[in-house]
């Protein structure tokens, strides 16, 4: 896989009252051994009922179907959940539907880190809600990436986060620039990007636009607007949960 964008999936949510479908979050379509998964943030799936979360299929939106696991809910709004991770082990029909538009990211395009303190330049990629459209019932989404520099230890201490579990990336929307020209570029808000990918760029390719280079190192879940800080979780809890699901035949 040369373009990891092919693994990023917009997640929609269907509501009964009022009846509507809205773009809701992002997921990373991921393959480990012979199984496929959708990695996302736990708050993306909170409060949803079976069949309520939807992804693009060949003929429209289809329900996400499969075994699900989410991190422990510390409180109703997850303010106490620094992990905020969730995943689906996808069933055969959901896999078939996703394969029409997307390609599962192989494990070879990931990097399992013991600490995020050694990271340099990172990109956060997903589908901002503000860029989604609904024209006569035809839904569309637009993918965006937000690039910034990984934080140092003092920033983790300030937010009370653990660099062995979390990733913090400096990204201030008000100071964003277009990488090609370095001209001011007020990008979209990160709402809807939750559950999207955090890619790490090697130091020598920090400003590259060659997407065959970066590795998936985490999943984004929270943006602290006032501080200009984007927070996610490292991949280890996802991989550990997948291992547990495989041992138990699908259930964590």
TrEMBL record:
| Domain of life of the source | Bacteria
**What protein am I looking at?**
Peptidase S1 domain-containing protein
Q: What is the organism of origin for this protein?
A: Oleiagrimonas soli
